[in-house]
Amino acid sequence: MASSSTIPNLSLTLNCQTYIDFKPPLPNYLSFSYSKRRRPPCLFTVRASDSDFEAAVVAGNVPEAPPVPPIPAAPAGTPVVPSLPIQRRPRRNRRSVVLRSAFQETSLSPANFVYPLFIHEGEEDTPIGAMPGCYRLGWRHGLVEEVAKARDVGVNSVVLFPKIPDALKSPTGDEAYNKNGLVPRTIRLLKDKYPDLIIYTDVALDPYSSDGHDGIVREDGVIMNDETVHQLCKQAVAQARAGADVVSPSDMMDGRVGAMRLALDAEGFQHVSIMSYTAKYASSFYGPFREALDSNPRFGDKKTYQMNPANYREAMTEMREDESEGADILLVKPGLPYLDIIRLLRDNSPLPIAAYQVSGEYSMIKAGGALKMIDEEKVMMESLLCLRRAGADIILTYFALQAARCLCGEKRIISTV
Q1: Which of 1, 169, 224, 372 lies in disulfide reach of 210, CB 3.0 to 4.6 Å?
Q2: How confident is the model over 126-145, as pLDDT tens digits?
Q3: Catalytic one among 333, 372, 378, 411?
Q4: Where does the source fall among the domains of life (predicted)?
């Protein structure tokens, strides 16, 4: 700014730095106020209007501003080359944190997480060796405390997996629909404590089966489809009656979604949703989970009902059947190794898509972090973001609490900047 300026319609020339106090617009007259302190150079303050400032600028009396910053120097030895004739430079939209945030296509929120929780009849929380940081939670206390921690950081959806005593297991898995069984009791307890908690349940016989399979096993080793579906329907109704919000058949029996929808509706549970494990592959990533529930098959494998990892188009067949039978949510399991399947369902179905980041994925990231081979937190967050980018609306992940805490921490940092 020049050392002095002439304000239009005022014959007195004033030193702007000393006498003029620039304020928000006032009426088109100048107001004067005498200083209370004895400062001879500053006798009064002039409050100028917007038009006064505009007139000064038009007259060429432009206020000073910081100089244009110099162009940063390149390191010594950098070749001098003409600019490439490129019209579109995508890096322009990536050059700052603010721009990257503004143009980010995929978001991640604690609301996207469903927290899988293992429960058992004991009072103590028992660590799971193959899944560092995970426990079989005592259903009365440890579980309630873990749910409270999750809710504190915005995770308000859980899915329950029970560790059933061997003495209660049977070839037909009848304990699965015991109204006073571990899962129904736990649902009632959680709903009493947290009425707005969204509770997903697992519908399958493997935790209750003495054979460790998702269905009833015939003496020749064949998994019986229709008879298993009959049991699963009773299990789903028992869970709905206890207060479950979403029942989740993970068994991969044919026709179970339609039969379950009819059974739920007949019992007055039209409001209970079905999240179908639409594309559940016979994966090698499930090992730590089976240790957690002690549910390894007693013989054979699950390849006659779970999908072949080599198959892509088959997922479309399962998707169409589940849609036609009344599924509300379609799930892909595992998650990260099957991003293409998540995208396939996302592009071909209007229904919400869920992805299960399974125990093997979780344990590998934990192990890599413990060995300092990777940055556990960064890889965790990247893996979850990838599942969202592929098209998953919700993610079942054992990282739910840890990731939500990271997200809440990021928000606190941003809010203080």
Answers
A1: 169
A2: 999 999 999 999 999 999 99
A3: 333
A4: Eukaryota
